[in-house]
């Protein structure tokens, strides 16, 4: 009897087992060098299956010495490229060729290999693969009931995040620093479990980074050169909830079921966003909807009825295209971070799919702000009609998002009517924010508590816009008073009066038309507080010193936050501040501006400062 085994049966020890049972007694076993090379490569990488294969080769050598079988090593060694492409069948093809050359029975535990071999006309013996027993992973010993994540790094004592949802603390869980050998052992165990377990898979494998999902744990293994040392981070949910565990969700449940919705679940990291999204997914599934998920990595703890999808061919756009063929009623998108993610979410929502997206935000309104500039403003309510803000594991705020054609609150003239996105408190239906275009910019104006403040959000917005327009026509200081929602008084130096008004009043008329306001231009001497050190809280815009900083008005585009700076400062390193607080350091570009890519941490901090109407300066 002539036999050619592939790697799968050698690793499982099936050949020596068949010899012991008498089925392969006296057989000639042609062992391809390609099999030996693959096993050796696996062992060099620290994988248990490699060492299991070596032990089987040693057993077969002993059986050969005892005369029970005859072993011949044949064929060429697998190249490094073939080993790297082993999952694509490169080595399998070499092994099948050996079976053809020696007219031997091809033995495998790989069903694909078996069927291909039969298709090639080989005599094939298919052995059911062995179920490998997998006990508790070594890293699991660091978990207890209150542990959400474990953080292990070479040379550092073990750390963990522990506590209740919304009340986590990062704490030491050991005394001695970890060594590289222990972490390598943990990593090998995790990778083996990810490749062989029915309830596990390898989510991502790149040079320096492996992400595995094993049962309810998401485990990231980082190695040099990607990281400065071996690090293993394991995260798992510490609680699984249903929608009934949250307060005041009855109306939200009804809203989700009355028709397909666009929902953003927002909150800070660790607030419980994904836990709530999982509860929503299972509620919708129980209510008779077809529910799918889009995740990278896949770690939502949902039932088997809900299929979890990840990136297809490296992009969520292709995943979305495939999902549209599946026709889900709702898709849970966990998590939305980049501009491309928002684009995919919007495309699926506009295609009629109910969407629930998970997004990082420190305030409820920030979730909507992240859509501004990424999708057309007027389309936002069609894409997102509900915002649910999670804090400390509970629903803190729910917003209803609608479009109305109206005069924005605080403005008066009827010809200022425009499409306005009204953000209302879901429970009381009281407007909380309005989002609209003002002087070619998208603005978000808070409405809560406006009547109790000395200066409303609209007044501040109007003052900033008037100051920006007038500054372009002046060289000296200015002061602005908003006398009514549609009227402003501007005080400038006597030398600047003619520049502001323009020939025949043309310049000031253009400014009034752009702003939709009537502007009365007067000299600084006419200001009621002239000579007392300031004017009614208005800003004086004398030429700023380097210490004060140059006051700038950033522009938000679809891809960047652009900060215009004096063109003469191109190439200079400058500091960007908000209300005098440091934001970041940057170099002024050749065109006299600073461009910050949207979606970055710096851009989000800058956009928050803009939303809060803070003074942005460059020094």
TrEMBL record:
Q: Which InterPro entries match?
A: KH_dom-like_a/b (IPR015946), KH_sf_prok-type (IPR009019), Nucleic_acid_metab_PIN/TRAM (IPR052041), P-loop_NTPase (IPR027417), PIN-like_dom_sf (IPR029060), PIN_dom (IPR002716), T2SS/T4SS_dom (IPR001482)
Which residue intervals define the domain PIN in the entry? Answer: 1-115
Q: Where is this region: Disordered?
A: 524-553
Q: Which domain of life does the UniProt lineage start with? A: Archaea
Q: Which GO terms describe its molecular function?
A: RNA binding
What are the entry keywords? RNA-binding
Keyword RNA-binding listed? The answer is yes
Family membership noted in the UniProt record: In the N-terminal section; belongs to the PINc/VapC protein family.
State the protein's name: ATPase
């Amino acid at each position: 009897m002539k036999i050619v085994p592939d790697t799968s049966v050698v690793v499982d020890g099936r050949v020596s087992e068949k010899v012991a049972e008498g089925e392969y007694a006296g057989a000639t076993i042609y062992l391809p060098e390609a099999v030996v090379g693959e096993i050796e490569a696996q062992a060099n990488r620290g994988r248990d299956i490699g060492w299991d294969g070596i032990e089987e080769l040693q057993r077969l050598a002993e059986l050969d010495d005892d005369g029970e079988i005859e072993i011949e090593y044949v064929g060429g060694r697998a190249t490094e490229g073939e080993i790297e492409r082993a999952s694509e069948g490169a080595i399998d093809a070499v092994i099948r060729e050996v079976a053809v050359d020696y007219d031997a029975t091809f033995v495998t535990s790989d069903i694909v290999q078996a069927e291909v071999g039969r298709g090639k006309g080989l005599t094939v013996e298919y052995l059911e693969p062995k179920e490998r027993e997998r006990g508790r992973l070594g890293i699991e010993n660091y978990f207890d009931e209150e542990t959400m994540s474990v953080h292990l790094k070479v040379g550092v004592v073990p750390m963990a995040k522990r506590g209740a949802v919304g009340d986590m603390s990062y704490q030491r869980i050991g005394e001695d620093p970890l060594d590289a050998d222990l972490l390598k052992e943990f990593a090998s165990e995790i990778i083996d479990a990810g490749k062989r377990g029915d309830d596990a898979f390898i989510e991502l494998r790149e040079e320096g980074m492996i992400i595995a999902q094993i049962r309810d744990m998401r485990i990231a293994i980082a190695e040099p050169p990607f990281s400065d040392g071996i690090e293993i981070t394991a995260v798992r949910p510490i609680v699984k909830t249903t929608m009934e565990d949250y307060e005041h969700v009855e109306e939200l449940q009804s809203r989700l079921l009355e028709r397909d919705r666009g929902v953003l679940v927002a909150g800070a990291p660790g607030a419980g966003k994904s836990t709530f999204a999982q509860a929503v997914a299972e509620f919708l599934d129980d209510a008779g909807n077809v529910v799918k998920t889009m995740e990278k990595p896949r770690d939502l703890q949902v039932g088997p009825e809900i299929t979890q999808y990840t990136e297809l061919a490296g992009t969520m756009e292709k995943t979305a295209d495939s999902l549209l063929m599946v026709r889900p009623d709702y898709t849970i998108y966990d998590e939305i971070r980049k501009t491309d993610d928002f684009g995919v979410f919007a495309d699926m929502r506009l295609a009629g799919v109910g969407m629930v997206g998970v997004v990082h935000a420190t305030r409820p309104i920030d979730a909507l702000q992240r859509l501004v500039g990424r999708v057309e403003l007027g389309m936002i309510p069609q894409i997102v009609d509900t915002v649910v803000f999670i804090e400390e594991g509970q629903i803190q705020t729910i917003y209803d998002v609608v479009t109305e054609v109206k005069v924005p609150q605080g403005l008066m003239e009827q010809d200022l009517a425009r499409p306005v996105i009204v953000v209302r408190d879901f429970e009381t239906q009281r407007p909380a924010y309005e989002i609209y275009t003002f002087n070619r910019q998208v603005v978000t104006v808070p409405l809560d508590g406006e009547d109790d403040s000395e200066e409303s959000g609209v007044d501040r917005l109007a003052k900033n816009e008037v100051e920006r327009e007038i500054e372009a026509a002046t060289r000296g200081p200015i002061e602005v008073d908003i006398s009514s929602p549609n009227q402003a008084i501007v005080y400038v130096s006597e030398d600047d009066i003619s520049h502001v008004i323009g020939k025949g009043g043309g310049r000031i008329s253009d400014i009034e038309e752009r702003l939709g306001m009537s502007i009365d231009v007067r000299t600084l001497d006419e200001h009621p507080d002239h000579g007392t050190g300031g004017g009614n809280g208005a800003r004086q815009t004398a030429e700023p010193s380097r210490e004060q900083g140059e006051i700038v008005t950033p522009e938000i585009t679809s891809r960047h936050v652009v900060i215009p700076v004096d063109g003469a400062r191109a190439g200079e390193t400058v500091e960007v501040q908000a209300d005098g607080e440091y934001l970041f350091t940057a170099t002024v570009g050749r065109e006299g501006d600073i461009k910050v890519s949207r979606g970055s941490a710096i851009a989000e901090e800058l956009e928050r400062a803009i939303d809060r109407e803070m003074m942005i300066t460059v020094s």
